[in-house]
Inverse folding.
């Protein structure tokens, strides 16, 4: 972890760029690059809003180290048969809430749309990202990304990371 | 009202942040903080595009002072029974059109999605925000926010502010 | 074509503004201003993702000079009867990928929603913009805009430029 020495405007800009890279890597189906957005000692979890708000565990996914992220990608590539589709992530409202001890806390809103093999697009999911972000030699990375989907009834499966 | 002394880049950044705060307060169901985004002598109206474009009144909502905003919040909290749902606001395309006499005129595009109690998400509404924004001791606030929904047939009710 | 003399932050900001102007001109139905976003020697094409990814031509539209853009607008205004609707463009994830020989390569994600004459809004299309942008006396303009829709089954016609 490196020291943060940016003003708030620059910090916000870099957090937005990290979000843009995240969305693009997944939408481009460059899954292998996805773990590289996280530091080694990281947490990635999908926690539907109802459970999250009620303080219940009930995660859809819970990875608490980097190896689990890489395993997920391998499993998606090698083992799973799943519905093929094109994702499109719309990420807005990126806000830096707090910077303490070189950890940036940020939030953003996401909307994911999917197009299926028959070329039909549709709404898939909305929600929020709650992030803890740190500076590394390679720029900003996620220490924690908590994905909070708004809806617990999804059209289809959650195979690819949200 | 304070004097504006920012360059256009800083101004645009602050208008984007105001928009982000607005979206988040409503999506977080922190309705009580919503009036605080407006100055005392303010106007908030929802004016469907067809009526707006034709020069017809036909507002869905028309509040022209701060007390009316606060009453609305109180009424939503205490009196009304309405469909419970989780909103998700996607606000993009924020543009500062003009700055005159310390009033910033800005526009943006919005998309609102909703998830109902059965956890199903769906498209709710698109439209534009037409804003007049001023500087106060507590940062930028809305002097006027005109909400122009694109569609006049909504899936459901407009209870919570758009 | 002018020389680019901006730092990367300023460049990114100006590319975002160009995208915002593009979206707004089309959503405002100011079609006549759309060709003005391109330089004379330009290319605008709509190339569905499946064809694009497979290296097949199969364009929906292919204009390779400015006159073709202006003809399109004229044709839409004077000759065509098409379904009347209100578009709403949500453009996010604008990233500057590369700057070489005064040509900026940028990408962004788009979502287009439409409201029909009966006032019903719906999802229309998602995809990506792949751009080559240059500096002119009148600011940044598109040298090339390649529109890559994610889905090849559209609800309705593509009349107005995406």
């Amino acid at each position: 972890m490196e020291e943060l020495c940016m003003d708030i405007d620059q910090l916000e800009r870099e957090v937005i760029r990290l979000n843009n890279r995240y969305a693009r890597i997944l939408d481009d189906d460059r899954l292998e690059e996805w773990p590289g957005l996280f530091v080694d000692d990281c947490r990635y979890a999908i926690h539907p809003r109802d459970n999250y708000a009620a303080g219940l565990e009930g995660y859809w996914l819970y990875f608490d180290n980097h190896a689990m992220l890489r395993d997920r990608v391998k499993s998606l590539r090698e083992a799973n048969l799943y519905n093929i589709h094109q994702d499109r992530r719309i990420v807005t409202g990126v806000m830096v809430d707090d910077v303490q001890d070189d950890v940036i806390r940020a939030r953003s809103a996401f909307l994911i749309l999917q197009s299926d093999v028959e070329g039909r697009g549709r709404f898939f999911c909305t929600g929020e990202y709650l992030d803890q972000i740190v500076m590394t030699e390679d720029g900003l990375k996620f220490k924690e990304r908590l994905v909070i989907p708004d809806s617990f009834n999804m059209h289809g499966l959650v195979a690819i990371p949200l």
Notes: The two ends of chain A are 25 Å apart (CA to CA). Strands of chain A lie at 38-46, 61-63, 85-100, 103-116, 121-136, 139-149.
